[in-house]
């Protein structure tokens, strides 16, 4: 099964080797036909603490690194 790759913006880099990434998706409402924006935050593993708040990054699914981390940063 292929691993999902998402793109988002780093909203927090306060923790060691971890960044919080806000991923926004857009879809058309099935009844109203209006474009709706939904967002979700993911915690991603950042090995060298290279990414800072405001950076646009791509994250990929991985095996669990901790209780909340199931993603790792792929590239900027």
From TrEMBL:
<keyword id="KW-0694">RNA-binding</keyword>
<dbReference type="GO" id="GO:0003735">
    <property type="term" value="F:structural constituent of ribosome"/>
</dbReference>
<keyword id="KW-0689">Ribosomal protein</keyword>
<dbReference type="Pfam" id="PF00366">
    <property type="entry name" value="Ribosomal_S17"/>
</dbReference>
<dbReference type="InterPro" id="IPR000266">
    <property type="entry name" value="Ribosomal_uS17"/>
</dbReference>
<dbReference type="GO" id="GO:0006412">
    <property type="term" value="P:translation"/>
</dbReference>
<comment type="similarity">
    <text>Belongs to the universal ribosomal protein uS17 family.</text>
</comment>
<keyword id="KW-0699">rRNA-binding</keyword>
<keyword id="KW-0687">Ribonucleoprotein</keyword>
<dbReference type="InterPro" id="IPR019984">
    <property type="entry name" value="Ribosomal_uS17_bact/chlr"/>
</dbReference>
<dbReference type="GO" id="GO:0019843">
    <property type="term" value="F:rRNA binding"/>
</dbReference>
<comment type="function">
    <text>One of the primary rRNA binding proteins, it binds specifically to the 5'-end of 16S ribosomal RNA.</text>
</comment>
<dbReference type="GO" id="GO:0022627">
    <property type="term" value="C:cytosolic small ribosomal subunit"/>
</dbReference>
<comment type="subunit">
    <text>Part of the 30S ribosomal subunit.</text>
</comment>
<dbReference type="InterPro" id="IPR012340">
    <property type="entry name" value="NA-bd_OB-fold"/>
</dbReference>
<protein>
    <recommendedName>
        <fullName>Small ribosomal subunit protein uS17</fullName>
    </recommendedName>
</protein>
